Structure formats: C-alpha cells, structure tokens
C-alpha cells in the first residue's frame, strides 16, 4: 500500500487527530448549548477559557519543567486590558468620557497608557503581546542567570504578590480591590447578546492554542523542551543554550494565559486582583497536574474537570472545598503523578522492557534485592 | 531627622527579626533537602494559635503566673509546630525527594488544609480525627504484625482507609446531632483572634523623643537567642555535625553511616519548630487569623533566595536587609531627604505604602540576583549547577 511510509502514516494520524479536534469543537458549539442551561453553558465557556491558560501551564511545566506559580499575573493582565477597552466604550454624547470609577477617585484625565485602549485593534494586539513581552522580559532576567527549579518558582510567586499589590493599591488606575466590572457594549453592540459568540470564539481560540502547542511540542523544539526538563546540564554540554528556548516558551505560555484571561473576563463580566492571588496561580498548575502533565489533552481535561468539581462542591459544601482542594494537591502529587491520562495505563497491557534505562526496573536487580532483604 | 531614621531602622530590624526566625528554619531545610515548604507560613500561624490557646489556659491561673505565659507559649508553639512538621515530613515529603517542584505543590495542599483546619476545628472534628488515626494506624499496626504484611498491604489500605473515614465521620455526625453546638462550634472560627501581651511587654523604652516598644525588643532578643542556639546546635553537637554533613554531601554521608532519613525528619521538625516560634512572635505584633502566615511567607522565601544556602550569615543579612528596606521605603523615610529633588521625591512617594514597598523591594531583589544569582553566600564547591 501507498500509506506505509512512516511520513505518510504520521500525516494520516495528524489528519485523524485534526478531525477529532474539529468534531469535538463542533459538538461543543452546536450540540452542548441545547443540553446545558445558560448558567452551566456560561460556566463551560469560562472553563474553556481557563483551559487555554492551562495549555500554557502545560507547555512550561509539563514539557519544560519550569514550575511557574505566577501565571495568574498574565491571566489577569489579559483580562484587565480587555476590561479597560470595554470600560472605555462610552457614547460620544456622554458628558463625562471617563470610566465611572475614575470620577469616583477624582481623576480628571485618562492616564496616557490607557489612551490607546479606545481602539479595538490596538487592544487585541495588546492582549496578545503585552503578557508575552512582560513574560519574556521576566523570563530573560531570571533564566539568564540560570535561576531555576525551586528558586524560579518562588520568584514567580513573589512576582505574583508584587503585581497583586500594585493592582490592588492603585485605585485611580485600576479601581483597586473591586477591579473592573459592569461592561456594557463591545464594538457598539450590547455585550449580553454576544455571550454565545464569545463562547464560540473561546472554542476557536482553544483549538488554535491546541494546534500551536501541538506544533511546538511535536518537532525538535518539543524535544528540546523535554530535554531541558529532564537534564538541562546535559543539553548545555551538547552545545545548546537553553536560555533562549526557556524565554520563548515562557513568553508563549504567558501569551496563552493572557488570551485565556481576556476570554474569561468577558464571560464573567468582571476582572479583579483576585485573579492574581497566589492561590489561583497554583490552582492552575493543579488543573494540569490532575489532567496529566505533558499531555495537551490532559491539560484541557483536567482544567474542565477540576473546575466543574469546584463549582459543584463549593455550591454544596462551601466550607470543605479547601479541604478537598488540599487533598487534591496531595493526591495528585503522591498517588497520581501522571494525572487522569495516566490512569489509562491501568487498562493497557504492560509492555515487556528490553532495555533497562533505570536500574530499578531490571528484574535481575530486583530478584537480587529481594534475595538480599530476606 | 536622625531620630526618625533611627526609629525606622529599629522598626525595620524588628520586622526583619521575625522574618529571620522563620527564614532560618526554611533556609536550613532548603540547604539540607532542597525542599521549600509552602506550608511554612501555616506553621507560623499554628504557632500563633498555640500562643492564643496557652494564653487562654493561663488566664484561668492567678495573675502573677499569667504574666509569664509567654515563655510557656514559646515552648508550646515550638513543639506543636515541630510535631506537625515531623508528621508532614514522614507523611508526605519523604516520598517526594528528588522532586522539589512536586514538593512545592504538595506542601501548598497541606497549607490549604491547615488553613481550613483552624477555621473549622471543633470538638466534633477533633474527635473524628483522633478516632480516624486510632482506627487507621491501629489497623495498619495489626496488619504489619502478620507475616505476609508486605503482600497484602495495598489491599489492606484500600479496605481500612474508607472504613475508618466512614466510621469516624459517622461518629462525629452522630455526636454533632446529639450534643449540638457544644460539639460543632468551631474553636477559633474564621475571624482573627487577639493575643494580649503580658503587662511587662506593653509600653516601651523611651529614647529621645520616641519609644522602643518592649514587645519588639523582646522579639529581637528572642531572635538573637534562637540564632545563638541554632549556631551552637549546628556547630557543637553531634546532630548539628550530621546535619552539616548531609547538607554538604548526602551520598557520602549516607555511606559513612549517617542515618540521612532520620536527619531529614529531625531537621524538618526543627525548622518547623522555628516557624512556630516566629508565629509566637507575630502574635505579639497584632491579631492573628487563618491567613496570617501567607502575609509573611513570601518575604521569608525571598530571604532564602537572597541569602543563599551556604551560610547562616547570608540569611541574617538578607532578613535584616529586606525587613529594613521594606520599612524604610514603605514609611517614606527618604522622601524628606530628597525634598529638593522633586522627581525623586515623587517617585519615592509613589512607593511609600506597605504594599507598594513590596513592589520596590522585589525589583531590588531581581536586580541583586542579576549580580549574584546564588544569593549572598552561595553554596561552595565544584558544582555544575551554577
């Protein structure tokens, strides 16, 4: 048969995968809205937006092994940029052309950096690139010095606190703790009537993000990411400089978080510094961990499952949700390191191992060990 | 002017000394095991709540004794936090060695549980937990006595765990229904609790035109004692020697017969105990709530990052520097100095709140790490890592 060269086979598999993705997207767009109530559909839309950010986390943590505890910053940043554009949609005829909270704090003129956000195109570009640039810059400053592992994680956590304080403290620029809410129109139309469009757009962007991550992780770039995760020193000794790759992948994941944040904001109708809370950023990691790290499907699945579980449980028992969440962290890390996707191994026949990359797997070593311990 | 600066430095140092006690424990543990404990703040919080409990017990005693409750509270806070730390190490962290990032996530889970635990702990919950421990660990003991313990352990856990959870929750729900509020009322609840300092810690030592509060002086003294104690412990005792050996080279120490697992558990308990003492200190500075630990813990991590893990001196310098810098920037002490330079003064005024000071301090830390990525005193040795 013609199909049998490896390249063609891979092409076929890719085609099948694309077909499945498109089919799922169509089901989500066409069938699911008939099944779910408006409230649940809105929740699903939000969670799909979250899973765009989840893909970003998977990219840096699952594949590259960089645990960022600060992706809430980029997420909220995307949200704030879109929210500010929406707040600036004030009719020409209005006597006061400032968002109402600014009047409250006695601001008379729009700060210069918010000026361009009257423009829709600029806002879209900013949502795409501002988190990317900030992520890239922070990443460069940190990775350049070979700061990694736990150090990197707690620095990102500190960055989260810093951004949280900044947005929380500046009432005049960002409305402080209350954040931005009460959006009315987008591109001149009432925002309430467009919720289904936002839902479709979220799915479209999720598919795009999936494709991007799939492309990034499958080629030699993907191999490099995994190499950084598994043995960065060896990679460096092989003549690569990991800094650039880490900066790129961190920036890409920041961009994904920003896009997710924008879609999340427009569907919740609110953005506040709460999204930059330390807890929320770590939660993002646990979505991916619960789904299965280093698998893109796992990241999306985990995000949806954990968030639906959260919304159900915290409706029923608001007190115990923290217990559940804490237990989830412990459980995923200790018992299920490969997440839900890892469970499928239970149903697969165990492959016999021909070579022993790990000495513990060698049956000779094991029998020897048992022999010794008896 | 000068006295203002002096006051600022004093306040900064006292903030720094709280940071120092808690960072000390974290730095020792991080140096030894490469593990950062995100639940460290919650261990501080437990220490603060222990102080609150001890205070309430001593209120029942005659007044002269009450005045000295703080010393008992310090000891109790140390041991409560150390015990929780020990359980945490034996129960969770020990399974995650060599996976520091997973340890971060797991300890975060523990910190969430501890936060909710202080909010909802009541007699009912306490009884349920004790019953669960009795059933589960008792059951496991019985299983372990059997000759074929190894082979049936997984199955045994699968049976005993849900069974003991079920029994203990049914008992606690039953008790809650029979006795009502006396059983189900939370001990502390979600709101903050206040610790009253003993009379001799209120007031202050007048110097010039401002006072040095006794409570802050007491905290600084306590920090100094802890420091000296830790130094002597690490340098002069056998256990200290073992801890230093494992920090330098784990495999070599294990080969030479040092029980590294015991050293790990012991050191982790010690570090947690120090967090408990720090918690006792923060309870003197203000009211404490379930989230109290979170306010301190990130600063504590920054101390470890800036100080490096090579020497205790790094932690000391970093803690005092970060404490002083946050206070100086946050209180706007420098503004009057640059009164003639309007842009600089405006710039400093922008950062002159406690939360904005953190922004500035973080920028300074990132700048510092550009020069010395390994902290003030990086770990020495031929190392590929840095």
Automatic annotation (TrEMBL), chain A:
The transmembrane residues are 14-36, 43-63, 69-88, 120-143, 149-167, 196-217, 244-264, 285-308, 320-343
Per UniProt, what is one GO molecular function of this protein? branched-chain amino acid transmembrane transporter activity
- InterPro entries, A to Z: ABC_transp_permease, ABC_transptr_urea_perm_UrtC, LivM-like
Is Cell membrane there in the keyword field?
yes
Which UniProt keywords are present, listed alphabetically?
A: Cell membrane, Membrane, Transmembrane, Transmembrane helix
Specify where it is mainly localized.
membrane
Cellular component terms (Gene Ontology)? plasma membrane
An example of a Pfam family matching this protein is: BPD_transp_2
Look up the domain of life of the source: Bacteria
Q: What is this protein called?
A: Urea ABC transporter permease subunit UrtC
Species, as recorded? Chamaesiphon polymorphus CCALA 037
State which gene encodes it: urtC
UniProtKB/TrEMBL annotation, chain B:
Q: Which compartments is it annotated to reside in? A: Cell membrane
Q: Which GO terms describe its molecular function?
A: transmembrane transporter activity
Q: Which UniProt keywords apply?
A: Amino-acid transport, Cell membrane, Membrane, Transmembrane, Transmembrane helix, Transport
**PANTHER family linked:** ABC TRANSPORTER PERMEASE PROTEIN, BRANCHED-CHAIN AMINO ACID TRANSPORT SYSTEM PERMEASE PROTEIN LIVH
Q: Could you tell me the membrane topology recorded for this protein?
A: Multi-pass membrane protein
GO cellular component, alphabetical, reads: plasma membrane
Q: Does the keyword Transmembrane apply?
A: yes
Q: What is the lineage of its organism?
A: Bacteria, Bacillati, Cyanobacteriota, Cyanophyceae, Gomontiellales
Q: Indicate the family of this protein.
A: Belongs to the binding-protein-dependent transport system permease family. LivHM subfamily.
- For this protein, the parts annotated as crossing the membrane are 12-36, 68-88, 100-117, 123-144, 156-175, 214-234, 255-284, 320-341, 347-369
The organism of origin for this protein: Chamaesiphon polymorphus CCALA 037
User: This chain belongs to which protein, by name?
Assistant: Branched-chain amino acid ABC transporter permease
Question: What are the BP-aspect GO terms?
Answer: amino acid transport
């Amino acid at each position: 048969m013609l199909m049998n060269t490896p390249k063609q086979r891979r092409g076929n598999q890719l085609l099948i995968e694309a077909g499945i993705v498109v089919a799922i997207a169509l089901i989500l767009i066409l069938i699911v809205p008939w099944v779910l109530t408006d409230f649940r559909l809105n929740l699903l839309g939000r969670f799909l937006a979250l899973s765009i950010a989840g893909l970003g986390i998977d990219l840096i943590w699952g594949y590259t092994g960089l645990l960022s505890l600060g992706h809430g910053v980029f997420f909220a940043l995307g949200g704030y940029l879109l929210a500010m554009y929406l707040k600036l949609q004030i009719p020409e005829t209005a006597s006061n052309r400032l968002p109402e909270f600014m009047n409250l704090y006695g601001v008379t003129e729009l700060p210069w950096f918010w000026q361009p956000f009257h423009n829709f195109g600029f806002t879209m570009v900013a949502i795409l690139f501002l988190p990317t640039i900030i992520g890239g810059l922070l990443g460069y400053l940190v990775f350049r010095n070979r700061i990694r592992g736990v150090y990197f994680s707690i620095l990102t956590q500190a960055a989260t606190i810093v951004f949280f304080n900044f947005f929380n403290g500046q009432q005049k620029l960002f409305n402080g703790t209350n954040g931005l809410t009460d959006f009315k129109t987008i591109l001149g139309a009432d925002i309430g009537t467009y919720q289904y469009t936002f839902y479709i757009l979220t799915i479209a962007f999720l598919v795009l993000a999936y494709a991007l991550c799939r492309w990034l992780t499958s080629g030699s770039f993907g191999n490099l990411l995994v190499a950084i995760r598994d043995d960065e020193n060896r990679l460096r000794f092989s003549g690569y400089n990991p800094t650039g790759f880490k900066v790129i992948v961190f920036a890409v994941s920041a961009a994904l978080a920003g896009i997710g944040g924008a879609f999340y904001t427009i569907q919740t109708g609110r953005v506040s510094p709460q999204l930059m809370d330390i807890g929320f950023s770590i939660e993002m990691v646990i979505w991916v961990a619960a789904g299965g790290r280093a698998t893109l499907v796992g990241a999306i699945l985990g995000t949806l499952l954990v968030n639906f579980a959260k919304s159900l449980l915290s409706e029923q028992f608001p007190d115990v949700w923290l217990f559940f969440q804490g237990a989830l962290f412990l459980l995923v890390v200790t018992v299920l390191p490969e997440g839900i996707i890892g469970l499928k191994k239970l149903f697969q026949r165990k492959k016999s191992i021909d070579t022993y990359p790990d000495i513990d797997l060698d049956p000779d070593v094991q029998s020897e060990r048992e022999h010794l311990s008896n | 002017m000068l006295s203002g600066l002096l006051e600022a430095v004093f306040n900064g140092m006292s903030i720094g000394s709280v940071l120092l006690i808690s960072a000390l424990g974290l730095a020792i543990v991080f140096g030894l095991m490469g593990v950062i404990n995100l639940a460290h703040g919650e261990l501080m919080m437990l220490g603060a709540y222990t102080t609150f409990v001890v205070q309430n017990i001593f209120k029942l005693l005659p007044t002269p004794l009450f005045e000295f409750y703080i010393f008992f509270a310090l000891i109790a806070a140390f041991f409560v936090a150390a015990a929780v730390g020990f359980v945490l190490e034996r129960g969770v962290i020990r399974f995650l060695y060599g996976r520091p990032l997973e340890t971060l996530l797991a300890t975060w889970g523990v910190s969430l549980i501890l936060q909710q635990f202080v909010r909802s702990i009541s007699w009912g919950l306490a009884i349920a937990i004790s019953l669960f421990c009795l059933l589960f660990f008792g059951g496991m003991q019985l299983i372990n006595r059997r000759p074929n313990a190894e082979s049936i352990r997984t199955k045994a856990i699968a049976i005993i765990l849900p069974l003991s959870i079920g029994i203990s929750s049914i008992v606690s729900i039953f008790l809650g229904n029979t006795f009502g509020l006396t059983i189900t009322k939370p001990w502390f609840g979600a709101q903050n609790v206040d610790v009253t300092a003993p009379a001799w810690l209120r007031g202050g030592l007048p110097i010039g035109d401002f006072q040095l509060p006794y409570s802050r002086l007491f905290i600084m003294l306590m920090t100094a004692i802890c420091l000296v104690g830790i130094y002597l412990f690490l340098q002069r005792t056998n256990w200290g020697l073992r801890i230093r050996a494992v920090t330098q080279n784990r495999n070599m120490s294990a080969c030479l017969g040092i029980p590294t697992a015991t050293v790990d558990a012991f050191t982790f308990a010690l570090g947690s105990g120090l967090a408990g003492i720090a918690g006792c200190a923060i309870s003197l500075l203000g009211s404490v709530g379930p989230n109290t630990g979170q306010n301190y813990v990130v600063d504590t991590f920054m101390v470890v990052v800036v100080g490096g893990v090579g020497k205790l001196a790094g932690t000391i310098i970093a803690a005092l520097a970060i404490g002083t810098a946050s206070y100086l920037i946050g209180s706007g002490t420098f503004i009057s100095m640059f009164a003639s330079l309007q842009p600089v003064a405006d710039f400093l005024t922008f950062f002159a709140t406690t939360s904005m000071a953190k922004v500035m301090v973080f920028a300074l830390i990132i700048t510092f790490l550009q020069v010395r990525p390994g902290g003030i005193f990086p770990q020495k040795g031929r190392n590929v890592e840095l």
